[in-house]
Amino acid sequence: MRASIRYCSLSIASPSGQALVGQRWALGAQRSEGTVSITAVVFDLADVLLEFGGVASVSRLSHGRIGAAEFGRLWQSHAADRLYRGLCTPDEFAAAAVAELSLPAAPGAFLEEFRTWLRGPYPGAFELLAEVRTRVVVSCLSNTNALDVARFRDEFALGRRFDHCFFSNEIGLRKPERECYDHVLARLGLSADPERAVFFDDSLSCVEGARAVGMRAYQASSVAGIRGHLVALGVLPGDSHAPGV
Question: Which of 116, 134, 163 is a domain's end point?
């Protein structure tokens, strides 16, 4: 594996969402068997870069009755689909979720818990973003909602940490639909070269969805694991390590 310096033209999103044409020197991974180099890295957010406490929260609300499996099924429901696509309000979703899970809690109490599900970044996560962003275009792609997007922008300042933020409730598309990844690739200018984009997600179905459109995709379990993949791909140098490690 060796690294190559490439000069590439990229489509960068402005705060207003309009595409801006810019240029950046990008250090990509060039494999010995070919000339394909990585020019973009795309991250999911919850349970990848940001700590997620949703399962524990719902377990408390249900007095231990609901575990990870049933919690996961909630996100396949019609109510969750509408939330992710920006077609219902968080209050409407809270009422539907309480009914769906038969929770002994009022929708308002559920919504208060819902606001706490996304915690701060995992140790080293934002440092990793900053390092990768000096070398390639960095984006996030998240199935999310208006409440969390407000926190992403105001509390976590993600608009300053990523070149692109693709939020499902704003683009009207959700993972693992093919159209969602197609939209991201088009904005990155990589529709014809999806293998130049790398995607990290904690959900295997979302990883498989990205692979289906030609992206390189990996299931993320830790910041260190993500860093290892990026080193192996040549996006980061071989001596790259987490701060303080």
Answer: 116
Quote the number of domains for the chain.
2
Residue 137, pLDDT score: 98
| Claim to verify: residue 108 and residue 133 sit in the same structural domain | no
> Which residues of the chain have a pLDDT value below 70?
1-36, 240-245
- Alpha helices, DSSP H, located in the chain: 54-61, 68-74, 78-84, 90-101, 107-114, 125-133, 146-154, 168-171, 178-188, 204-212, 223-232
Q: What is the pTM of this model?
A: 0.83
What range defines the domain where residue 154 resides? 2-50+120-232
DSSP code of residue 46 = B
Is residue 110 domain-shared with residue 152, that is, in the same domain? Answer: no
The residue behind tokens 């704003």 is 170
Please name which of 67, 152, 169, 159 lies closest in space to residue 118, comparing C-alpha atoms. Answer: 152
Contact 134, 109 (CB under 8 A): no
**8 Å CB contact between 11 and 190:** no
What lies within 8 Å, CB to CB, of 39 at 6+ separation is 6, 8, 10, 26, 28, 136, 137, 188, 190, 196, 197
**Per-residue confidence (pLDDT) for residue 241, from 0 to 100:** 58
Name the domain boundary from 116, 132, 148.
Answer: 116
Asked if residue 196 belongs to a domain, the reply is yes
CA distance 163 to 11: 9
